[in-house]
TrEMBL record, chain A:
Anything else known: In eukaryotes there are cytoplasmic, mitochondrial and chloroplastic isozymes.
Group of enzyme by EC: transferase
UniProt keyword Nucleotide-binding present: no
Cellular component aspect of the GO annotation: mitochondrion
Keywords annotated in UniProt: Aminotransferase, Pyridoxal phosphate, Transferase
Organism from which the protein derives: Gossypium schwendimanii (Cotton)
Swiss-Prot/TrEMBL catalytic activity: L-aspartate + 2-oxoglutarate = oxaloacetate + L-glutamate
Cofactor(s), names only, from the UniProt record: pyridoxal 5'-phosphate
Ranges in a coiled coil: none
Name of the molecule in the record: Aspartate aminotransferase
Family, per entry: Belongs to the class-I pyridoxal-phosphate-dependent aminotransferase family.
Tagged with keyword Chaperone: no
Automatic annotation (TrEMBL), chain B:
Subunit field text: Homodimer.
Remarks, miscellaneous: In eukaryotes there are cytoplasmic, mitochondrial and chloroplastic isozymes.
EC number in record: 2.6.1.1
Organism annotation: Gossypium schwendimanii (Cotton)
Matches recorded under Pfam families: Aminotran_1_2 (PF00155)
Record domain Aminotransferase class I/classII large: where: 45-412
GO cellular component: mitochondrion
UniProt xrefs under InterPro entries: Aminotransferase_I/II_large (IPR004839), Asp_trans (IPR000796), NHTrfase_class1_PyrdxlP-BS (IPR004838), PyrdxlP-dep_Trfase (IPR015424), PyrdxlP-dep_Trfase_major (IPR015421), PyrdxlP-dep_Trfase_small (IPR015422)
Zinc keyword on record: no
One biological process term in Gene Ontology: amino acid metabolic process
Record-given protein name: Aspartate aminotransferase
Stretches of the chain forming a coiled coil according to its record: none
The keyword Transcription regulation is assigned to this record: no
Taxonomic placement: Eukaryota, Viridiplantae, Streptophyta, Embryophyta, Tracheophyta
Gene3D superfamilies: Aspartate Aminotransferase, domain 1, Type I PLP-dependent aspartate aminotransferase-like (Major domain)
Length: 452, 426
């Protein structure tokens, strides 16, 4: 009887595979001995269609898909302004010197092992991350009212926080700004929360729709969760002023809305770590509670190492302990315990004052280069007499600029000038260099004058 | 940008309770509670046979030499960057991992019917696989072997799937309850998902034989059940990577479909680097492509893309002939130590004349052994001998050194004798 299934060809298989082939052929022809012998007969399931034949092809992720398209393009003048990853003036990815130094130190430390971390990650990393975001003198930290757990970068921190809230918080709705990072909605809905939006960006002014924001948060049901970008709003680059933050804080506290901060650009917005944490620190200073998802992807250039932390600031220390114990129950059936490498690099840098200083200098240099790109692009458009007000390019903050270009104009720029960006007109300033600014300015000029 | 001058913040009403006041303090996860208790214990003879981590003969944590070598090379490579990996991880890592598990001659790989995505360790591979099945597979019931790895139920039910069990281990005979297994899978819901441990069953150390695997395979295919393998000990069971993958390869090369979660935590000692993969073997290449696109939709809102470091280490080792050889040598040495300790423990108990049949120690395979001790006896071991293990009687053979075997054997002997009814004592 011919075996019903194909076997690995013996010419390329291991000796174990050849033994397996022999066994299978033997079993296929021998009769079954056991009392519960199973007749070797084909079944409809086995010889039928794939059990996944109905699965449809999912579209490419809109942000990451930009890089996919860019990579396919053979043009020598192509520009990738899609993903928010920093590039040097030479257009190259950057590994910070202080990060390389930390890696060498870790390597030379013979006492280091690769054993499982605790569920909540490296204790030192957690403490230092809390200090970094809340400030070394934060009363919440002093009073042990903060629990911080290491997570898989910003995305992972948001997801763990959201799953916790879906399980333990009485309000299952989160309000997210319009627009927001493309991945936010899915992170929250898959965690079990429902998503609503609040007005944020005004396309006519290319600035904040502050009135709309206050109205929408003002009419949100009491206790709702509100997602706030701590600084350098993605994708618009439009941040509230400090006074506006204070108004937001008062409104939210009066309505018992729960703040959930996404902090992915601390130090990258203004170049100063403490300044970029002001919004968060205001909310902590008033004694209330909040969630903070923190990422080291951009500000330490640790993108692919997936380093981040989720902090929950509570009203009391015993609540913080209880929250932490429940966070473990979210993490354990997800990734069990976090990866060691990236967090070790961060802890090494944060705890050493010399390395910390080196880091702040390299960070400021990155932030300054981006600010300089903004100025250059603004000047270039001005020089070309490109119609429109382009001052938002220098007013907006952080890695991204919401150009205000529409999707037709974006398509045009990709087609004619090989410039890649997300279809909402967001460009990553970090992907620009002095050499490539003229090309971008030409493209914008052409798009604006030839396509409306 | 100006700083706001320190001002009196608007205080929350002072009678405002925490929003999380009513949350209960969750108990410590058992295995971590055991470790915490062990750490607190001042006794110099204490033994930690709880958590599944391989230790050397000296009882030390073990980073493989080949891993250290590769890390040095990686750190010195100034051309390497830390850019985001694709959502599905490092492509080369994925290819090499699939080859490692399914064999380089695998027709499924040749026909592009296997989708492999890098995940954050075995745990997240299981979770992502479960989430995919919860979303796209028509049957939401998963049969787990009784017993199984403590975190399996959590991982699978967190994805929204329903759990059932199938008989696996017979506590009376201390071997596989094969009859019960066949009966339970034979009457399982049509199309149900069945979780299998590829080799080195955790916690029992009891694996089906090759012939038994073939019977299981036939039954699974006949009933249209979907096999979901957890492969965390490839190489650590027999010392041979291909042999330990036989169960998977049987299913992978019969033309049918299966899901495989793979971990490099134990066999490359990469525990804390969280490196693993999820593979789905599909009927056609077209289905495999579509499945991959849907896996991305699950991963992106979970952690976006996986960590570089562990994958870079694994890739460097798997693709270089010399490094691969070094790895297999170290792997075999680890496995041989496990076998030797098992033998030593068995011999010690026989020499002591400890009542009972202790041959399961040498029949069981892999990192773990189900001692057969009951909860009271386990408590006795902890209380009297400062030996820490899972309350179900599982010990990590990898945590035992030959120096500690006599002490452990004494403890078992004492526990067994103490729990015998007094009339049976000579």
């Amino acid at each position: 009887m011919r075996p019903e299934f194909t076997l690995p060809s013996s010419s390329s298989s291991s000796s174990a595979d050849r033994r397996l082939n022999a066994l299978v052929r033997h079993l296929a022809t021998a009769s079954m001995v056991s009392q519960t012998a199973v007749a070797f007969s084909p079944t409809s399931g086995f010889h039928g269609d794939s059990v996944f034949s109905h699965v449809v092809r999912a579209p490419e992720d809109p942000i990451l898909g930009v890089t996919v398209a860019y990579n396919k393009d053979p043009s020598p003048v192509k520009l990738n302004l899609g993903v928010g990853a920093y590039r040097t003036e030479e257009g190259k990815p950057l590994v910070l010197n202080v990060v390389r130094k930390a890696e060498q130190m870790l390597l030379n430390d013979k006492s280091r092992v690769k054993e499982y971390l605790p569920i909540v990650g490296i204790a030192e990393f957690n403490k230092l991350s809390a200090k970094l975001i809340f400030g070394a003198d934060s009363p919440a930290i002093r009073e042990n009212r903060v629990t911080t757990v290491q997570c898989l970068s910003g995305t992972g921190s948001l997801r763990v926080g959201a799953e916790f809230l879906a399980r333990h918080y009485h309000q299952k709705t989160i309000y997210i700004p319009q627009p927001t990072w493309g991945n936010h909605p899915k992170v929250f809905t898959l965690a079990g929360l429902s998503v609503k939006t609040y007005r944020y960006y005004d396309p006519t002014t290319r600035g904040m729709n502050f009135q709309g924001l206050l109205e929408d948060l003002g009419s949100a049901p009491s206790g709702s969760i509100v997602l706030l970008h701590a600084c350098a709003h993605n994708p618009t680059g439009v941040d509230p002023t400090l006074q506006q933050w204070e108004q937001i804080r008062q409104l939210m506290r009066s309505k018992a809305l729960l703040p959930f901060f996404d902090s992915a650009y601390q130090g990258f917005a203004s170049g100063n770590l403490d300044e970029d944490a002001q919004s968060i620190r205001m909310f902590v200073a008033d004694g209330g509670e909040c969630f903070v998802a923190q990422s080291y992807a951009k500000n330490m250039g640790l993108y692919g190492e997936r380093v981040g932390a989720l902090s929950v600031v509570c009203r009391a220390a015993d609540v913080a302990s209880k929250v932490e114990s429940q966070l473990k129950l979210v993490i354990r059936p997800m990734f069990s315990n976090p990866p060691i490498h990236g967090a070790s690099i961060v802890a090494t840098i944060l705890k050493d004052s010399n390395m910390f200083n080196e880091w702040t200098i390299e960070l400021k240099a990155m932030a300054d280069r981006i600010i300089s790109m903004r100025k250059q692009l603004f000047d270039a458009l001005h020089a070309r007499g490109t119609p429109g007000d382009w001052s938002h390019i220098i007013k907006q903050i952080g890695m991204f600029t919401f150009t205000g270009l529409n999707s037709k104009q974006v398509e045009f720029m990709t087609r004619e000038y090989h410039i890649y960006m997300t279809s909402d007109g967001r460009i990553s300033m970090a992907g620009l260099s002095s050499k490539t600014v003229p090309h971008l300015a030409d493209a914008i000029h052409a798009a604006v004058t030839r396509m409306s | 940008m100006e700083y706001l001058k320190p001002m009196e913040p608007t205080r929350i009403p002072s009678n405002g309770d925490s929003l999380f006041q009513d949350i209960t303090l969750a108990p410590d996860i058992p295995i971590y509670a055991t470790t915490a208790a062990y750490n607190k214990d001042p006794c110099p003879n204490k033994l930690h046979l709880g958590i599944g981590v391989y230790r050397t003969e000296e009882g030390k944590c073990h980073t493989l030499n080949v891993v250290k070598q590769v890390e040095q090379t990686l750190a010195n490579d100034l051309s390497a960057d830390k850019e985001y990996l694709p959502i599905t991880g490092m492509p080369e890592f994925n290819k090499l991992s699939a080859k490692l598990m399914f064999g380089s001659g695998s027709p499924a790989i040749k026909e592009s019917r296997v989708v492999t995505v890098q995940c954050v360790s075995g745990c997240l591979s299981l979770r992502v696989g479960a989430e995919f099945l919860a979303k796209h597979y028509h049957q939401h019931v998963v049969y787990l072997p009784g017993p199984t790895y403590g975190n399996h139920p959590n991982l699978i039910s967190a994805a929204g799937l329903t759990l059932k069990t199938y008989r696996y281990y017979d506590p009376k005979t201390l071997v596989l309850d094969f009859q019960g297994l066949l009966e339970d899978l034979g009457s399982a819901l049509s199309g149900a998902i069945v979780l299998f441990h590829a080799c080195g069953h955790n916690p029992t150390g009891v694996d089906p034989t090759c012939q038994q695997w073939e019977q299981i395979r036939q039954l699974v295919r006949q009933r249209g059940l979907l096999p979901f393998f957890d492969c965390a000990y490839q190489g650590l069971v027999s010392g041979n990577l291909d042999d330990d993958a036989q169960s998977i390869r049987m299913f992978g090369c019969d033309g049918g479909e299966c899901v495989v979660a793979q971990s490099y935590s134990k066999n490359m000692g990469l525990y804390g680097e969280r490196i693993g993969s999820l593979s789905i073997v599909c009927k056609t290449a077209d289905v495999a492509r579509r499945v991959e696109s849907q896996l991305k939709l699950i991963i992106r809102p979970l952690y976006s893309n996986p960590p570089i470091h562990g994958a870079a280490i694994v890739t460097a080792i798997l693709k270089d002939r010399d490094l691969y050889q070094k790895w297999t040598n170290e792997l075999k040495a680890m496995r041989d130590r496990l076998v030797q300790v098992r033998r030593q423990l068995y011999d010690s108990l026989c020499n002591k004349g400890t009542p009972g049949d202790w041959s399961h120690f040498i029949k069981q395979v892999g990192m773990y052994s189900f001692t057969g001790l009951n909860k009271d006896q386990v408590d006795f071991l902890t209380r009297e001998y400062h030996i820490y293990m899972s309350s179900d009687g599982r010990i990590n053979i990898g945590g035992l050194s030959s120096k500690a075997v006599p002490y452990f054997a004494d403890a078992i002997h004492d526990a067994v004798i103490s729990s015998l009814p007094s009339s049976t004592l000579a």
